[in-house]
């Protein structure tokens, strides 16, 4: 792999950009691998990357039914934060956030991480108490967050109306090191680094079946034929239930649609990420100037990657009260992704009934921010066969044992 | 936009009038059952990409719970029926088979 640098740009400028190589190879599958990762979203690619980087396992294939990053990774609104309430969540999301800080250097690929700060508005007294509690918890967990009053919120976000008649802003939780990154670049950066380590990223190849013998996976049936493997990692987000069924087990997961939309581009007007969980809306401004807006999930099981219009209406209605200046903006695009929601709304990083098969799913509406940490923890689980400290609490046996990681109550909307 | 006909009051209700209640026909397990049964009743879900049976409530109408057969991959609705059944009624099953010959039947 040729490194990207200022010298590379200068060199290529002089020879009319004829020397750039493809960012990743598109090989045909080999007969077998040490590890197959199903799903080339951020989590699958990061799993492969840290298998190579942290454990020296590079005979790896990442198999993707569409194009890499075309699932939720390329559809999300890119909020990155780690201000969770429960210790296991704070640990893995903070690991991820801190890896994001140096990810561009690590991958030699600009993922445009922008720690512009993140505000979670408190618009009811219940939320005020809730976020103050989170700030105290974060202090103990070593996650830097603070509580700020309404005047300070107004100073940070001048376009905000803090005196809304229905939902006045009573204060906010601020995580200064939270922010956004370029979603496609995260997938592309990991893919390029995996390819450079000799891993095979096989796109347009759908896994149709999981073959096993005596409780161990031997390989996967795909649209490009059978591919053997010593270990299998299932990292397919919205389709986790379908692939788990191929492997013979059932998950505590349901798939629903989550939508987002962007406005026409406007001049810079908001330079932090704002989340308003009571009204189910959040907003940030992209580098192109579009306002990136999202809300809550649609409520019924759905695999169509499109959601219901009335949810968009609800989200915008709420945001217009808080940001009156957006009321005349035109919305440019709207889309949906299929998110995998678990019984306690926390992710699963787990062993499965098959000895050499592992699953990573359930990130639901909020897993973009977790990609580096999740890949890090998943690589350890796959390499050692046992979870390390980051993954230990996220096993799916927690549903049998009643050890839930109850962030849904803590986070309201969890992006 | 999803539209379901309430089998009680006959109103063709669109989704803002309804509340979803997720998987239908769950077999309930309580105290004294095995951990496996209790866990699967509480959490393990079929979550199919295709034919699905669900509970819905006509919240802003007559207020009653009913059941619906729907395709989660296309949002096609096969029919709705009263909640007092422990498995899909034969006319609904026949309608699904006519539309989805490859469907393996209710399991
Ligand atoms: C509208 C929206 C907004 C969001 N906003 C945020 C946010 O602001 N912040 C945040 O942190 N998170 C957000 N999320 C959540 C985040 O996008 C996801 O949690 C995360 O991207 C999941 O990554 P993944 O790699 O697990 O899944 P994906 O990126 O979906 O990758 C899974 C891949 O598996 C492939 N696959 C599935 N089945 C098969 C098969 N049988 N064979 C081969 N390949 C298969 C799919 O094609 C897909 O590419 C949002 C999600 C949506 C939909
Ligand atoms: Zn009714």
Q: Layout of helices and strands, plus pairs?
A:
The complex is a heterodimer of chains A (415) and B (107).
Chain A: H1 6-14, E1 32-38, H2 42-55, E2 60-63, E3 79-80, H3 87-101, H4 103-107, E4 118-122, H5 125-141, E5 146-148, H6 150-156, E6 171-175, E7 179-180, H7 183-196, E8 200-202, E9 207-213, E10 216-222, E11 225-234, H8 240-246, E12 253-263, E13 273-276, E14 281-285, E15 291-301, H9 309-322, E16 331-342, E17 348-351, E18 357-361, H10 371-384, H11 398-401, H12 407-411
Parallel strand pairs in A: 1-2, 1-11, 2-8, 4-13, 11-18
Antiparallel strand pairs in A: 3-7, 4-6, 5-6, 9-10, 10-11, 12-15, 12-16, 13-14, 14-15, 17-18
Chain B: E1 3-5, E2 12-14, E3 19-23, H1 35-42, E4 51-57, E5 65-71, E6 77-82, H2 90-99
Antiparallel strand pairs in B: 1-2, 3-4, 4-5, 5-6
Bound molecules: flavin-adenine dinucleotide and zinc ion.
């Amino acid at each position: 792999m040729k490194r990207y640098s200022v010298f590379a740009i200068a060199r290529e400028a002089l020879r009319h950009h004829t020397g750039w190589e493809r960012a990743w190879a598109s090989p045909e599958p080999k007969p077998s691998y040490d590890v197959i990762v199903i799903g080339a979203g951020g989590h699958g690619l990061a799993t492969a990357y840290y298998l190579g980087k942290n454990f020296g396992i590079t005979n790896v294939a990442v198999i993707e039914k569409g194009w890499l990053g075309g699932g939720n990774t390329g559809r999300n609104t890119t909020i990155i934060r780690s201000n969770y309430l429960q210790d296991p969540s704070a640990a893995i999301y903070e690991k991820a956030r801190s890896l994001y800080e140096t990810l561009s250097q690590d991958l030699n690929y600009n993922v445009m991480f922008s720690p512009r700060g993140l505000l979670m508005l408190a618009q009811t007294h219940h939320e005020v108490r809730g976020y103050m509690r989170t700030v105290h918890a974060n202090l103990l967990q070593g996650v830097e967050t603070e509580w700020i009053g309404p005047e300070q919120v107004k100073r940070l976000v001048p376009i905000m109306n803090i005196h809304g008649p229905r939902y006045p802003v009573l204060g906010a939780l601020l995580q200064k090191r939270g922010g956004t990154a370029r979603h496609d670049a995260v997938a592309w950066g990991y893919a390029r680094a995996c390819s450079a380590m000799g891993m095979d990223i096989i796109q347009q190849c759908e896994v149709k079946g999981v073959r096993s013998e005596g409780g161990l996976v031997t390989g996967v049936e795909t649209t490009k034929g059978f591919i053997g493997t010593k270990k299998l990692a299932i990292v397919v987000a919205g389709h986790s239930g379908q692939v788990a069924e191929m492997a013979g087990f059932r998950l505590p997961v349901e798939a629903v649609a989550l939508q987002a939309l962007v406005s026409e581009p406007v001049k810079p007007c908001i330079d932090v990420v704002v989340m308003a969980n009571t009204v189910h809306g959040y907003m940030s401004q992209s580098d192109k100037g579009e306002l990136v807006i999202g809300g809550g999930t649609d409520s019924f099981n759905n695999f169509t990657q499109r959601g219901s219009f009335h949810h968009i209406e609800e989200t915008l209605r709420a945001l217009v009260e808080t940001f009156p200046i957006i009321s005349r903006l035109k919305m440019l695009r709207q889309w949906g992704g299929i998110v995998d929601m678990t019984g306690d709304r926390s992710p699963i990083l787990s062993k499965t009934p098959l000895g050499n098969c592992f699953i990573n799913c359930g990130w639901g509406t909020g897993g973009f921010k977790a990609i580096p940490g999740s890949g890090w923890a998943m690589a350890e689980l796959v390499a050692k066969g046992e979870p390390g400290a980051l993954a230990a609490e996220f096993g799916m046996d927690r549903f049998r044992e009643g050890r839930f990681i109850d962030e849904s109550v803590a986070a309201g909307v969890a992006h | 936009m999803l539209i379901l006909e309430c089998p009680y009051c006959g109103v063709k209700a669109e989704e803002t009038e309804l509340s979803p209640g997720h998987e239908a026909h769950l077999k309930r397990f309580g105290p004294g059952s095995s951990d496996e049964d209790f866990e699967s009743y509480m959490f393990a879900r079929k979550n199919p990409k295709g034919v699905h049976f669900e509970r819905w409530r006509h919240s802003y109408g007559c207020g009653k719970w009913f059941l619906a057969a729907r395709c989660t991959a296309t949002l096609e609705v096969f029919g709705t029926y009263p909640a007092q059944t422990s498995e899909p009624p034969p006319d609904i099953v026949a309608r699904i088979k006519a539309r989805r010959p490859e469907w393996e039947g209710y399991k």
